[in-house]
Every structure is written in C-alpha cells, then in structure tokens.
Amino acid sequence: METNRLSPTIQAALNAQMTNEAHNAQIYLAYASWASEKGYDGIANFLFRHANEERNHMQKFLEYILKRGGKVTITAIPAPGPDPVSMNDCFEKVFASEVENTTKIYDIVNTSMAEKDWATFNFMQWFVKEQTEEETLALDLLDKIKVAGGANAKDDALFVLNTELGKTPDDATLAQDVTVEKP
Ligand code: OFO
Fold this sequence. Notes:
The protein is mostly helical. It has a single domain, classed as Ferritin, CATH 1.20.1260. It contains five helices and no strands. α2 packs across α5. It is elongated, with a radius of gyration of 18 Å. The model has no long low-confidence stretch (mean pLDDT 92). It binds hydroxy diiron-OXO moiety. Hydroxy diiron-OXO moiety binds next to α1, α2, α3 and α4. The site of hydroxy diiron-OXO moiety has 8 residues, from α1, α2, α3 and α4.
C-alpha cells in the first residue's frame, strides 16, 4: 500500500530545499565568524542567531517530509562562498541570499499549486511569510549600513552599528502583524 503522500517531484523539491536551508545556515555561520574575527561581536551574534533560524527551517522541511510519509534524503551541504570584503558587502550578500531563497520557496509553491498538493501549498505559506520577514530584516541591515556610510563606513560608525545590532531582536515586525496594541 502506498503511504507516501508526496509526489516524486514535490518530494525531491522539499529535500532540495531542506539542503538549501542548511546551506543558508552555513552562509550565516561563515559571515558571523568573519564578523567576530574582525572584532564586531554584536553583528556576529546577530548572524549566529540567524544561522540557528536557518537550521530550524531545515528541520521544519525534514519533519514535514516525514509527516507526509515521504523519504528524507540527507546530502552534502554546499560550502558558503568567499568571505565578505567589507561590512557593506556582508549585508549585501545576506540580502542577495535571502532573495535567492525566496525564489526557491516560490518555485515549490508554484509546483504544489500545479499538482494541486494543497497540504504542501499550505505548509509552504509559513515560509512565504518568513521570507518576507527575512527580506525586510536584510533590507533594514542595508539601510543601517547605508546610514553608516555604505562601502565607506568608518570604524566609529561600524562600532555604533555593532552595538545596536547586538541588542536587536531577530525578527522584523511585518506591517500585516502590526496592531494598535502592538505597534
Ligand atoms: Fe530560511 O529563511 Fe532565510 O533564507
């Protein structure tokens, strides 16, 4: 009796995305280590915390595949690219990798819709929202570095940014989540 509720295409896409999330965690780990080596511990902590979020996303995909009776395939995680050359470059790379990940999430949404796999479509909505949040957070980082001088940011401006990011919550508040009580 067939108990796998995922089509081969969806199962392959979910497994690939599980690895993509692990890859994103490696990217954040690499950038966090780079920032820490440069002495920016506040920024490093922010990026380390984010690496954990990406690992949680990986786990979410893994658990969903199992829950639907599918087969989890653990593969090698591609290495992150080269270290950033500046804080500006670091934040630009963070934004670019979040946008790239959003495209991959949307591809799975499109496939689940085409296959009328409404369970997967519904599961993916959490990630659609999460990616909006993460892009907002990454855009916010880019705005902050722009104010600090962008590619020409001086040490003192980066020091202020480092202190500020060390205290920042991980999650950005989405406009749709804002209420009068919770602005
Ligand atoms: Fe997994 O959320 Fe970022 O990429």
